[in-house]
Amino acid sequence: MEHIVTVQDAVTAFADFMEPTAAELDAIECEMPVILADVDLLDAQIITLDRTPNELDARRIRRARRRVLAERATLANRTATASLPGGAA
Questions:
Q1: Which of 6, 11, 68, 77 qualifies as a FRET site for 60, CA 20 to 30 Å off?
Q2: CA distances from 49 to 40, 42, 45, 53 (A)
Q3: Which contacts qualify for 51-60: CB closer than 8 Å, 24 or more apart?
Q4: What is the pLDDT of residues 4-62, one digit of tens each?
């Protein structure tokens, strides 16, 4: 039995309407500090995968975790204040 497959997905996979909107790009830009902090934390954790973490590695991981938490708190505060219409609390 032969399966009949459409090529619609292959044709429309790169269509113009599939591009991110300006609002989506702005949201990504707003979240970029959190993304970069997460990348730094992953880098610090990856370094310790093949060896026993020493004190410097532990400090690097702790610092990266604190940065992730700080960036997430900043983002949460920024989005909380931005979502209040008319400045009402």
A1: 77
A2: 15, 11, 7, 8
A3: none
A4: 666 565 555 566 677 888 999 999 999 999 999 999 999 999 999 999 999 999 999 99
Angle at 23 between CA 66 and CA 77, to 5 degrees: 35
Q: CB-based contacts of 53: which residues, under 8 Å, 6+ apart? A: 61
| Residue appearing with tokens 């400090």 | 59
Q: Go through 17-40 and write b for each residue having 16 or more CB atoms within 10 A of its CB, e for each that does not.
A: eeeeeeeeeeeeeeeebbeebbeb
The first and second tokens of residue 3, run together, are 């399966």
